[in-house]
Amino acid sequence: MINKTVGSAERALEGVADGMTLMLGGFGLCGIPENSIAQLVSMGVKDLTCISNNAGVDDFGLGLLLQNKQIKKMISSYVGENDEFERQMLSGELEVDLIPQGSLAERCRAAQAGVPAFFTPAGYGTEVGEGKESREFNGKMHILEHAFKADFAFVKAWKGDEAGNLIFKGAARNFNPVMCGAATITVAEVEELVPAGELDPNAIHIPGIFVQRIYRGEHYEKRIEQRTVRKKV
Hints:
The chain is an alpha/beta fold. The protein is built from six helices and eleven strands.
């Protein structure tokens, strides 16, 4: 069995260069590839196009890349918690493509499955659908959306093995799984890395065929984006 383990984030991100298109998994601040993002910051690569459900917050996640002006374009669904993102977008420093969340997920999944494009009703009759081919199916109008083309996909899993098989936990399953295999190279960072064959095959969410590199991450903060607690009674 092929061992896809690399010893560090530095080795995992070898080949990342200026101007590339990157996918980054996670939902809000849950299940984001913190170590890979930190390495991107350290590398100083710039003019990146980043595909991610959200853009992090001002001092965490993709917000760190935005602070360093490393991102040229964001392709996202939700970006409401990042003041620096708002400033760059309104000033014209940052290109932004806002996509319905389901369409964003499906464009990743289509790339993973090798499907070049698909029709969806989401966005028809709005700015999202302007300039796109449209067709009627079963009495309802749909627009044509194309699968993403990305150079690297960075995902974060709870547990993985040396062959690249992955298990996600909770809300981290929202975007990480569909980004696996949706780029030329998929890099997975995991909290726990075990020898190949130790994971229960029935528990595996993503098979190793979709992953090219895997490494064990460390020092995860696991921040809560909007912490809400009950008042004392």
